[in-house]
Amino acid sequence: MPSKPAPIKKAAKKEPAKKEKAPEPAPAPEPAPEPAPEPAPAEAAPAEGEAAPAEGAPAEGAAPAEGEAPAAAPAEEPKAPTPPPPDEEPKPPSPPPPPPKEPTSAPLDLFVEDKNDTSVSIIWSQPETVGQCGLDGYTIEVCKDGTEDWKAINEDLQKSCRYVIKNQTTGDRLKIRVVAVNAGGRSAPVSLPEAVLIKEVADRPKVRLPRFLRQRYVAHVGDKINLTIPFSGKPKPVVSWTKNGQPLDTKKVNIRSTDRDSILFIRAAEREDSGVYEMCVKVEDFEDKSPLILQIVELPGPPASVKIVDTWGFNVSLEWGVPTDNGNTEITGYTIQKADKKTGEWFNVLEHCHRLNATISDLIMGNTYKFRVFAENKCGMSEAAAVTKGEAKILKTGIEYKPPEYKEHDFSEAPKFTTSLSDRATTVGYSTKLLCSVRGCPKPKIEWTKNQMIIGDDPKYRQICRQGICSLEIRKPGNFDGGVYACKAKNDHGEASVSCKLEVRQAVVADADKK
After folding, report:
1. Rounded mean pLDDT of 13-32?
2. Rounded to an integer, what distance in angstroms lies between the CA atom of residue 320 and that of residue 416?
3. Of the candidates 414, 406, 460, which has an alpha carbon nearest to the alpha carbon of residue 440?
4. Given this model, what pLDDT does residue 50 score?
5. Would you identify the CATH topology of the domain 413-505?
6. What is the largest CA-CA distance in the chain?
7. With respect to CATH, is domain 108-197 assigned 3.50.50.60?
8. What angle do CA 27, 29, 34 make, to 5 degrees?
9. Greater pLDDT, 370 or 34
10. Cα–Cα distance, 221 to 460 (Å, whole number)
């Protein structure tokens, strides 16, 4: 029937619409016009009927065969209700792309701050140019000299500009460099100009002798000596000791040395241990020495001899000699004792005598005496003494004493002040004293006045007059204790007086004390 091809074309017009929704357009044997930019209804597609069997089209959308009723087209309407996609809203203009991220410039001024036998401390300055990305930190890299096997030694980025490279092998030579890191990547490295030798820095050795050992060190026989002398130096110095220029006898003197000090130990000191000890510390070609003078002392021996030189009246003159054993230290004096032959008891008559002779006085007439002398040094008095061989007897002369006749002199004199009072100034609460001196015979009577008022027995004042020296002590004066003080001396032959002004000032209080 010739009228049926028209509906076939309408069915074919619906097929290209489905193809337009597919991800890829279906090929057609004949060229077809390009689809409209916006989705159009299926009837608007200008495709031919031959495009109906295109690939990817669903089986339900195929054109009906001849003889089928054109009502097959409405059967597709259950799937057709999918609404067309809404028109896209216009997008705002996109911003310009960000500038590319760049790393910083290389760090500056890398150098070694310190090193020892296992570590190296390095320090550097931050890069001159950091950029917009900032600076995240630094990576420290090392490699052995002669290789290019660089390895980072810090797991996390180093924030500060100082780092200690630890746990290295003594004797290795390391090349060291530092790289700055940020979001733009790694900067150019800064390297040390030369490889670093892992070796302890050699400090010159120095003996640090304590102050109390810089002079002669004195100890008693039998004392335990334990002296610690610190020293310094890198690497560990070699310590040696000598006594009077000769090696030490380790049987008598023990030496124990550590990394920082050396100990000289003597269990029980003897006089033979005295001498000049010298401690020497040495590092490579450098050394330092320090002498230590040790003196072991003990009690001295008795004086060499003592004898009675002369006896007259109630006096005896003695002489003695220097002890043969001074106890390894100087003699500081002598002690002389006497004993009466009747009792035999010894008594000190003279102590700490610095001469080799002495005169013993005030002996009792008719008694017979013996004498002995002890020597003294820093340790004390000698255990033994030198005793006189002879005895000294104080004879009874039998002479009757007749006092000489003389004409008595008249010493009477009116009071006269030989030293007058001086004006004084004192502070409130601080005791002060007024002094003057007077002479006269008979002894004058002293009277003190304040502003022409007799002081009398006022407990605030203390009046003393001894051997012509007169004093008035004012105890903790107040604001009203100032004035004119006078001292008046009076006896049967006259009177005299002196006066002075006393000013009592207020104490100055600091600002801090006021608060």
Report:
1. 42
2. 53
3. 414
4. 40
5. Immunoglobulin-like (2.60.40)
6. 202
7. no
8. 60
9. 370
10. 59
Task: Give a three-class secondary structure readout of 197-249.
Answer: ECCCCCEEEEECCCHHHCCCEEEECCCCEEEEEEEEEECCCEEEEEECCEECC
Start-end of CATH 2.60.40.10 domains in the chain = 108-197, 203-297, 306-393, 413-505
What CA–CA distances, in Å, run from 457 to 204, 393, 448? 78, 57, 10
What element of type H or E holds 13?
A: helix 5-21
Element (H, E) at 427: strand 424-427
CA dist 276 and 274 (Å) reads: 7
199: which 2 tokens?
Answer: 């070796």
Phi/psi at 511 (5° precision): -60, -40
| Plot region of 444 (φ>0 → left; ψ -120 to 50 → alpha; else → beta) | beta
Strand-pairing partners, residue 355, are none
Q: What's the chain's average pLDDT?
A: 81
The first and second tokens of residue 48, run together, are 């031919």
List all residues 6 or more positions away from 376 whose beta carbon is below 8 Å from its beta carbon: 300, 331, 332, 333, 334, 335, 352, 382
Which of helix, strand or coil describes residue 22? coil
Homologous superfamily of domain range 203-297: Immunoglobulins (2.60.40.10)
Measure CA of the first residue to CA of the last residue in the chain; give whole Å: 129
Mean pLDDT (whole number) for 503-508: 86
The DSSP element (H or E) to which 8 belongs, if any, is helix 5-21
Rounded to the nearest 5°, which phi and psi values hold at 139?
Answer: -115, 130
Residue 237 burial (CB < 10 Å; 0-12/13-18/19+)?
buried
User: pLDDT tens, 40-85?
Assistant: 443 433 434 343 333 433 444 444 444 444 444 444 445 555 666 6
- CA separation for the pair 393, 396 (Å, rounded): 9
Q: Which amino acid belongs to residue 281? A: V
Query: What's 306-393's CATH class?
Result: mainly beta
User: How crowded is residue 186: how many other Cβ atoms within 10 Å of its Cβ?
Assistant: 13
